[in-house]
TrEMBL record:
It is a multi-pass membrane protein. It holds the Pfam family Cation_efflux. It comes from Falsiroseomonas selenitidurans. Belongs to the cation diffusion facilitator (CDF) transporter (TC 2.A.4) family. Gene3D superfamilies: Cation efflux protein transmembrane domain (1.20.1510.10), Cation efflux protein, cytoplasmic domain (3.30.70.1350). This is Cation transporter. Residues 207-283 form the Cation efflux protein cytoplasmic domain.
């Protein structure tokens, strides 16, 4: 988990640099659209700090009060980030409405766009790094941060184009309109992030594709058993929990049944990055004739 912590720490630094650049772009132009972009970067800094703290907490080993570990702290961080995104969107909408009623002239648009473009390029590059490393580390907090930054890049690109159009056409009403559209996009992004993160908090099952792979591995490595049924999975950060009932012949010795369980566990742990496996062995009289049939 140390690599995830290092990435989260760098994210805080990147977010602060981007915030400084975007505040500078808003300061020199007075554009409400660039203000909206800068306000989202405030959320980026808060979210990056929350992600770092969550990853550090999630890295703690299991203890008496948390025997399954602390990995779900990352989902809490992701939900918090989603809430912060939504709050930022509402603040932007409020500012856009005030500016709509009293339009303001944009000053030094060229300089403001240039500074904001540098910040957007930095965000885009770092979001790509977080996506790549977050997937390999299976870190919900890093992936949430990556999605947020990618959303920021998309909205920033639209804002930059809009500010240039305002400067070229003199249509001041376009500035608050762009800010409002940016806020709506941010609001949708925040809601999606909250919804996805709740899946982890509510013990959502492994994806269908991964579940199929688990079934195939159990079937291929349970030679000597009859079937496996009541297969259940759940995700907690980078860990996948797998549990099922394994039916064996009633005459099989405990040692032989244990050997089958060891084979299955080794196969699953070799396929999954991090897995906790629980197998309940039952005699043939408990067979349900459904679930995973042994090859």
């Amino acid at each position: 988990m140390g690599r995830a912590q290092d990435l989260a720490a760098v994210s805080v630094g990147v977010a602060m640099v981007v915030l400084g650049l975007k505040v500078a772009a808003w300061w020199v132009t007075g554009s409400v659209a660039l203000y909206a972009d800068a306000l989202e970067s405030v959320v980026n800094v808060a979210a990056a700090i929350a992600a770092l703290l969550a990853i550090r907490f999630a890295a703690r080993p299991p203890d008496a009060d948390h025997p399954y570990g602390h990995a779900k702290a990352e989902y809490v961080s992701a939900v918090l980030e989603g809430v912060l995104i939504c709050v930022a969107a509402l603040l932007i909408l409020s500012e856009a409405w005030q500016t709509w009623q009293s339009p303001r002239l944009i000053e030094q648009p060229g300089l403001g766009v240039l500074v904001s473009a540098v910040a957007t390029a930095l965000n885009g590059s770092w979001s790509w790094v977080l996506f790549r490393r977050g997937r390999s580390l299976r870190s919900p907090a890093l992936l949430a941060d990556a999605r947020h930054l990618l959303s920021d890049v998309v909205t920033s690109g639209g804002v930059l184009v809009g500010v240039l159009l305002v400067a070229l056409t003199g249509l001041l009403w376009m500035d608050p309109l762009l800010a409002a559209l940016t806020a709506l996009n941010i609001l949708v992004s925040g809601w999606r992030l909250i919804r996805e993160s709740f899946g982890g908090l509510m013990d959502e099952a492994a994806p269908a594709e991964e579940l199929g792979e688990i079934r195939a591995l159990v079937a291929a490595h349970a030679e000597g058993a009859i079937e496996a049924h009541d297969l259940r999975t759940r995700r907690s950060g980078p860990t996948t929990f797998v549990e099922f009932h394994l039916v064996v012949p009633g005459s099989m010795t405990v040692t032989a049944a244990h050997d089958i369980c060891d084979r299955i566990e080794m196969a699953l742990k070799a396929h999954l990055d991090s897995a906790v496996i629980t197998i309940h062995v039952e005699p043939d009289g408990k067979a349900k004739h459904r679930g995973v049939l042994v090859l």
